[in-house]
Amino acid sequence: MIVVIQRCSEATVLIKNKVFSKIDNGLMILLGIKKGDQINDADKIIDKVINMRIFNDRNNKMNLSAIDIESDIMVVSQFTLYGNIKKGRRPSFIDAENPDIAEKLYNYFIDKIKAKGFFVRTGKFGQTMSVDFINDGPVTFILDSKDI
Q1: CA of 77: how far to CAs of 28, 29, 69, in Å?
Q2: pTM: predicted TM-score of the whole model, two decimal places
């Protein structure tokens, strides 16, 4: 499981040019699910993300976590994180999980973060979306569940 985590001052998901969801100050999470990913991959990523000290304190140092600031969180599925472009010019997505399995893990990921008390908004799994956000910092991290 791979996530791209971006600290944002706001994030909006549009579907068919209409606002589907919106958050203010918090985290924008793009979630890629690989074939073979399990619940424990999601649990490891969630624990790391909500505890990462990537928000600034009063001294402008990254010392505060999403828990500390009661961050909003936007989660958007993005199978293209597992796009392989090593050969040719057209990406291969053979490493991305099948949609029926991936959607279950995506929903688990969201439900687990909500259960921890966060205000969570999402994209819509399997839909074409426009994602608009302001990267605060900019601050961006990439996590792979196999590396933590």
Answers
A1: 11, 8, 24
A2: 0.96
pLDDT digits 0-9 by tens, 41-61: 999 999 999 999 999 999 999
pLDDT digits (tens, 9 = 90+) for 87-105: 999 999 999 999 999 999 9
Structure tokens at 81: 């994180």
Contact 27, 70 (CB under 8 A): no
**How many residues in total does the chain contain?**
148
Which 3 state secondary structure label does DSSP give 17? coil
**What residues does 142 pair with on adjacent strands?**
4
Active-site annotation, residues: 80
Q: In degrees, to the nearest 5, what angle opens at C-alpha 140 toward C-alphas 56 and 47?
A: 75
- Output the DSSP codes for 39-99: HHHHHHHHHHHHH---EE-TTS-EEE-HHHHT-EEEEEE-GGGG-B-SSSSS-B-TTBPPH
Q: How many angstroms separate the Cα of 46 from the Cα of each of 37, 84, 106, 148?
A: 14, 25, 12, 11
Q: Which residues pair with 129 in a beta bridge?
A: none
